Write the C-alpha cells for this entry.
Amino acid sequence: MLRLKFLIGLFTVSVFAFIGCQESDPINTPVDNSNNALLKGATTANGWYEEEEIYYIDQGVEQGVTERGDNQIYLIGGNRVYQANVVLFLPGVPGYSPHWNVNVVNTAAGVTVSDILASPYASSHFNSEGVLFDDVADIVGAQQANLITIAHPGVVVNCPIVPEKAAEAPGNTPLSEDFESFDLNAGF
C-alpha cells in the first residue's frame, strides 16, 4: 500500500513538473479561431428536402474532390438561380454527409416550365413560393419522364445541415432568397 501511494505521488509530481516546463500556459493562451466559420459567423442558406424547407452552412466547393459518397444536392438551373437547392439526405438518414455531390438540373430539349407544372413532379410550393422542385424523388421522376436533364459537373460542396435557429443565429449571413422567376413558356 505504501508503495502504491509512493507511485501515485511520484506520478503527480512528474505531471506537475512537466506542466511547469511548458513554454506557454495552455489555459490562458488565446485560441486562434480565425478559421472556424461557426465562431465568427457563417454563410447560411435555405434548401428543400422532401417538401420541407431546410437550412445549411455553405462552406463552398471542396478543391480537388470530384465525388464523395452518395449524398447529392440538386441545383435547379444553377446554384440558387431560380430556387433554393434540393438535397437527398438529412442528418440521421443513412447516407447523410455534409459533403454533397453537385447535380445541375435543366429542362430537357423542347420542354417548358409549364410542362413540368402539368406533371405530377412539380412542387405544391410553386404558386406560393415559386419552388418548382422540393423533393429528390420528384426530380428523378421528372428525369425519367424526359422532362429534365441532370448534369454531374464533378463538383463537391461542403454544406452541413443545421437547425433553422442555428442558420439564423446572430453573426451568420444568410444567402438571399430572392430568386429569378421561372418563365412558364420557356425552359431553364
